[in-house]
Amino acid sequence: MSRLPLRVKLTLVFAVAMALVLSGAGLFVHQRVAADLSRALDQELRSRAQDLSALVLSGGSLRAGRGGLIEHGEAFAEVIAADGRVVDSTAPIGKLRLISSQEFARALRAPVFADRDSSPGLDEPARMLAIPLERAGKSFVLVVGSTRETRAEALRSLATSFFIGGPLALIVASFGGYLLAGAALRPIEAMRRRAEEISSSSLAERLPVPETNDEVARLGETLNEMLARIEDGIARERNFVTDASHELRTPLALLKTELELALREGRSADELEQAIRSAAAETDRLGRIANDLLLLARSEHGRLPLRTEPIDVADVLDTVGERFAPQAEALERKLSVQADEAPVIVGDRLRLEQALGNMVDNALRYGAGRVTLSAAQQYDSVELHVLDDGPGFQPAFLERAFERFSRGDDARSANGSGLGLAIAETVARAHGGSAHAANRAVGGADVWLELPRK
User: Fold this and answer.
1) Rounded CA gap, 212 and 223, in Å?
2) At what angle do helices 349-366 and 313-330 cross, to 10 degrees?
3) Mean pLDDT over residues 109-116, rounded?
């Protein structure tokens, strides 16, 4: 059963359900018709008893009443005196009393119905009605009866119709269910065939969605949305790999060149030392890029580890400022911290210092003038700003400032990986916040992290 096609399974379930419905409906109709026929027979006996009682009270004979009142072979009647003798009857009853003594005693007081397995002269079940009569001051009991064969024949005919028509109706209904299941599953099969053709090289294709606005259509829309997310994810991964390969190629080429130069004959000790120092610097750069890539890869899978604790924002800004003070001094740049009223927040101190460090390093590399670290309190958040007095960001670059390996045109030849701001945004998102960049109205760039206060 588990290996059958879904269309066949649905048809079988529909067929079983229809069989139960038809069986229940047939049984219900049979019972209702049987009850209606029984009531009709009782009503017929009452009417016949009323007509024959009028005949008997007028002095007529039951034998004379045959024809219009008594149907030969199907109906019969008799009159029983108070002492239990049969005084009148239809053929072939004769003097045979049709009811028992107990029924006769009750019939002298009120009408009594009785059933018999056979009727006189006929091997057929019968139903009788006995009613009391008073004629010339004497009590009598009039018994009228009729065979139940007509009722039985009607029920047998009805059952035969059900036994013949029921299976035919079940076959027709099952065939209709099979066609209906096929029509319902056809869009799903079309989506399956298209999905079978889609590969990593053709993710731009989409599944056909029927214009029915039903469950199948919503399933197709959901799957197409999933394909769009997969396509976007794979595209970002491919771009990531391409950009990473490009970024790693330059330091690797420089490292190889320095090592090859160091291996040449005739190199002096100073030249060898310079080559080794240059190779070590490129190795450090490769290590930083690898660590940054690892951090970004972890964040893509929601696994960026955070060790949260209450931290003083002013202390974090001071620590970052002190760390980059020598670099600013070497560049003859001023670096200041303004965080007198900075609050305490819950976060990962090392990650926040890393993010702010990347922002300050970016400002020292590509900005100009003073670099300022400041904190601003909002209603439910804290903003950590890094400002500089340089030319600011290019308008087209602002939209992708936090993308991985994204650098402005004037920084493409600089010694940077384009991962600093991307890491800053990753750290902000890991804390439930966000990262922003803008150009200041007075000139220069403003990059800040917006973090929740709780």
Assistant:
1) 16
2) 30
3) 90
**Which residue in 316, 318, 391 sits closest to 354, CA to CA?**
316
Of residues 200, 208, 209, the one with CA closest to residue 230: 200
Going by their DSSP bridges, the two strands 126-135 and 112-116 should be labelled as antiparallel
Cβ atoms within 10 Å of 329's Cβ, excluding its own: 11
For position 392, which CATH number holds?
3.30.565.10
Q: Which of 128, 152, 176 is the C-terminal boundary of a domain?
A: 152
Of 315, 314, 337, 313, the residue nearest 324 (C-alpha): 337
Shared-domain flag, residues 342 and 248: no
Q: Which amino acid appears at position 115 of this protein?
A: D
The rounded distance, in Å, linking the Cα atoms of 306 and 312 is 17
48 in the same domain as 117: yes
Distance CA 417, CA 326 (A): 22
Residues 2-33, buried b or exposed e (16+ Cβ, 10 A)? eeeeebeebbeebbeebbeebeeebeeeeeee
Tell how strand 445-452 and strand 381-388 pair up: antiparallel
> What pLDDT score was predicted for residue 285?
64
**Mean pLDDT, residues 245-273:** 69
* Each residue's pLDDT tens digit, 283-307: 766 776 666 666 666 665 556 677 8
- The answer to whether residue 193 sits within a structural domain is no
For residue 278, the number of C-alpha atoms closer than 13 Å in the C-beta half-sphere is 18
Check whether 205 has a pLDDT greater than 80.
no
Average pLDDT of the chain to the nearest whole number: 81
